Structure prediction request, 98 residues.
Amino acid sequence: MTSPETKQRLETGQPLGPPPDADTLRAAALRVIETLRPGIQRDGGDLHLVAVDADRVFIRLSGACTTCSLAGQTLGGMRRHLVREVGWPVRVVPAPPH
Prediction:
């Protein structure tokens, strides 16, 4: 859960302190994926962490997600979860299929 101070800083664009390092962001992304995965798999899709580069997390969608009109919402939900998890703005970017 995001603290009230972090939430206010995110909303007003104030500095949050140092950004998370790649290992911290990767671990947070994997935790978020494990949280979201059951619901996504219930709908016939899946998501996989491909890479972390600075503040960008690359996610590959598979299965039903590849043709779903709500795939952008899935990535946006992942981004919101990650921001709450690490307390720092991050970007979730769709990775191309293999």
